[in-house]
Design goal:
single chain; alpha/beta; Rossmann fold; Dna Ligase, domain 1; 7-stranded mixed β-sheet; 6-stranded antiparallel β-sheet; 21 helices; 22 strands; 41% helix
């Protein structure tokens, strides 16, 4: 410790530079060591003996990492590797991912991260890892205070959590909400077979716990099979007449171990079921001494046929003893149905993601040379942003439709521009000192004639001078008043942690209030762009709400891909915001009404 986490960045740089000059790499500083089961190497100062197994842990926190070693031992989770990453002065999480994923001994990777370094490399490494193994991520710094604590802890900025969360999902990682959930998933995933399909079934002896489990299935994305003919065929022999053959299957509180064994063996040996969620509430009619043997027996049958199964058993000391005994045998048994089905949901998310994954990247043909010329001019003028007309030039180069527009330097110019474009028009201030035009009173809408042009010009100049007396006014933009449509926002930026990202959602003046937007890494394809848009509540408006026609979603996707191409290909553009971009009926396209672009040298 005592390096970048307390501001000693230069000392870290010197160590890394020296190591590289000698052909070496640096792990850390601010770490507690590494462990490798395959190399029989342990340099950690853990107080707990490390059991060998199939989970690799990568942790940015030292104290938490050491505690995790102890917790894995308590949870009977064996480790294939543990790497303390620390400050990442040289070797980072992407390097570590690329290393541990190669191990045949490793079946699941667990990461604890606070801040992410080298976002594009990390995304590439994470995508490669999740193709072959589940990657469980604990990412702290969700809240403002948590982010501040992370910064002081490891010298890392936590970044916007919404962006991190979206990109983890985009890469196929499984983000856990707590340490216990992460350990539950790791233990289950390192032993569970791959599901063959999505025909899940709940077997229970109580209606209440069955309802809880059904809710949990919806929360965690586990589909329940509902073909009544098949369910009756499979479970009728094990279900009394007063039970229920609807999923959840209720074999009633009168079921003993033999009845349970029969009911739980049925989906294991049937080719019509793909996953079983077994629930048990302690009753006086159940022979409790046979609880653990029954679960052990039915678990073996599921493993023999490659059928995933989880158990949730609730009750007193006999149940608690069974949980302890079976957990030590790596049987996935829990005291809460939500914990059990959370594990099944993680398995299905990993399986379903890889079954349909598409890591290809879509690109649009854009005139990069034209965009670079616009940036050259702005930088030569000493600006770090583009003026409105320059932003429109970028949109033209990208092939995104914009309203007809011209820049007026005087009232007479404004009148001529308006008459050439055709009424009604919109007038907006063009100023290097005013980025948010509406806040400055620098926008006038629905101008119908010459007199209104004159009044609007004078009002905009007056308002902007009152807003910022020393503002340089480059002119007034006169542009076509676009017809009404659905207003959305499309944005892109180079995130300091995750690299180039794109964003889309509800646009217009309420974008900051509603915050109905979704994010992705900019390296995405059309399918992923559609998924991003569909995550927002405002997607319903694009589909055609309250009898309206469906909007031109294909062109919205085109526009997202164009924005993603610009932010990835044009190194000197740091931020793009198109708001609003007005979307019309299917086949009629979009128009980018207002564009803000920030640039760097």
């Amino acid at each position: 410790s005592g390096f970048s986490e307390v501001g000693e960045v230069e000392l870290e740089h010197k160590i890394v530079d020296y190591a590289k000059s000698k052909g070496s790499r640096i792990l850390g500083p601010n770490i507690f060591g590494v462990f490798s089961a395959t190399s029989n190497f342990n340099s950690t100062f853990s107080a707990t003996e490390i059991a060998r197994g199939h989970v690799a842990i990568l942790t940015q926190s030292g104290a938490l990492g050491i505690a995790m070693i102890g917790k894995t031992a308590v949870n009977n989770i064996g480790l294939s590797a543990i790497v303390s990453i620390g400050n990442k002065a040289d070797i980072d999480e992407a390097d570590c991912l690329e290393y541990v994923v190669k191990s045949e001994m490793t079946k699941v990777i667990l990461m604890y991260v606070e801040g992410i370094k080298g976002g594009e490399r990390f995304i590439e490494a994470l995508r490669a890892a999740t193709r072959v193994k589940p990657v469980v991520v604990l990412k702290s710094g969700r809240s403002k205070r948590g982010a501040a604590a992370a910064a002081s802890h490891t010298g890392s900025l936590a970044g916007a959590d919404e962006i991190t969360d979206a990109i983890l999902k985009q890469c196929g990682a499984l983000r856990a909400e707590s340490l216990q959930e992460a350990f539950n998933w790791c233990k289950f995933l390192s032993n569970a077979p791959e599901p063959k399909g999505n025909r899940g079934v709940i077997v229970t002896n109580g209606g209440g716990i069955g309802v809880m489990a059904t809710d949990a299935c919806e929360k965690y994305g586990v589909e329940l099979y509902d073909d009544q003919a098949v369910l009756k065929d499979v479970f009728a022999p094990a279900t009394p007449e007063f039970g229920s053959l609807k999923n959840p299957i209720d074999i009633t509180g009168g079921a003993n171990s033999a009845a349970y064994d029969l009911a739980l063996s049925a989906p294991a040996v049937s080719d019509k079921m793909d996953a079983t969620m077994a629930l048990y509430c302690e009753t006086a009619t159940f022979d409790s001494e046979n609880l653990a043997p029954m679960i052990r027996n039915t678990y073996k049958k599921h493993m023999d046929t490659g059928t995933p199964v989880v158990y949730a058993i609730v009750g007193g000391s006999a149940v608690e003893n069974a949980i302890l005994t079976l957990s030590n045998e790596n049987v996935p048994v829990f005291a809460d149905p939500y914990d059990a089905i959370s594990c099944m949901g993680a398995l299905y998310r990993h399986h379903d993601f890889n079954k349909s994954r598409d890591d290809s990247v879509s690109e649009s043909k854009i005139d990069l040379a034209a965009i670079e010329k616009v940036i050259d001019k702005a930088l030569a003028d000493g600006r770090t942003f583009l003026l409105a007309n320059e932003g429109q030039d970028v949109m033209r180069a990208a092939g995104i439709m914009i309203p007809g527009a011209a820049i007026a330097k005087s009232i007479d110019d404004a009148v001529k521009c308006a008459e050439k474009i055709g009424y009604p028009v919109v007038m907006k201030v063009v100023s290097r000192d005013i980025l948010h035009k509406s806040d400055a009173g620098g926008v006038a809408l629905n101008i119908e004639n010459k007199d209104e042009v004159v009044d609007a010009y004078e009002a905009i100049m007056r308002n902007c001078k009152a807003y910022k007396a020393d503002a340089v006014i480059d002119g007034i933009e006169v542009c076509e008043m676009v017809k009404k449509g659905t207003e959305i926002i499309i944005g892109a930026r180079k995130d300091p942690q995750m690299g180039p990202i794109v964003m889309a959602g509800m646009g217009g003046i309420y974008v900051e209030v509603m915050k109905d937007v979704a994010f992705r890494a900019a390296a995405l394809n059309r399918g992923e762009a559609l998924k991003m848009i569909a995550e927002t509540r405002s997607y319903a408006l694009l589909l055609g709400a309250r009898g309206e026609d469906q909007k031109d979603i294909d062109v919205v996707i085109d526009s997202v891909i164009k924005a993603s191409t610009i932010i990835r290909k044009v190194s000197r553009i740091s931020d793009i915001e198109i708001n609003p971009i007005v979307v019309y009926e299917k086949g009629k396209g979009v128009k980018a009404v207002d564009v803000r672009i920030l640039i760097t040298k």
